[in-house]
Amino acid sequence: MPICIECSYPVSHLYSTYSRADDRSLGKGVRLTQCPRCQRFADKYVEYDFVVIFIDLVLIKPQAWRRQRPIRCMSIILHSLSSLVYCLLKIEILQLTKLFVR
Ligand SMILES: [Zn+2]
Question: Where in the cell is it found (predicted)?
Fold first, then answer.
């Protein structure tokens, strides 16, 4: 059973869908569940882009780490770190190439 990321209270579902729910790219069709205990959204990150989630994970916000999908969070971190390493290596290769071209 999913939990509220704000207070860890069990909720039946994190969001509900309605018409045109398959078109999540428009941000339509999803209604976030309000936690019965703290009255906040049970998981506000449902509508967030993974970059925002990653930033909140790096900032060690407990709500981001309390999500139901820790494996997904870890895969986001690993993907982001590997992309960063790739970019840094590419920049380094470009700089080395410029040195040898002169
Ligand atoms: Zn709550």
Answer: Endoplasmic reticulum membrane; Golgi apparatus membrane
CB 34 within 8 A of CB 7: no
Give me ligand 1 centre to Cα 11, in Å: 8
Rounded Cα distance between 77 and 37, Å, is 30
pLDDT along the chain (102 residues), means of 10: 92 85 62 95 90 86 79 72 90 87 70
Distance from C-alpha of 63 to C-alpha of 6, rounded to nearest angstrom: 6
Question: Which residues are bridge partners to 3 per DSSP?
Answer: 10
Calculate how far, in angstroms, residue 10's C-alpha sits from the geometric centre of ligand 1: 8
The H or E element containing residue 72 is: helix 70-101
To the question of pTM greater than 0.85 for the whole model, the response is no
For 4, 8, 93, the CA distances from 1, given in Å and listed in that order, are: 10, 11, 48
User: How far, in Å, from the CA of 53 to the mean position of ligand 1?
Assistant: 19
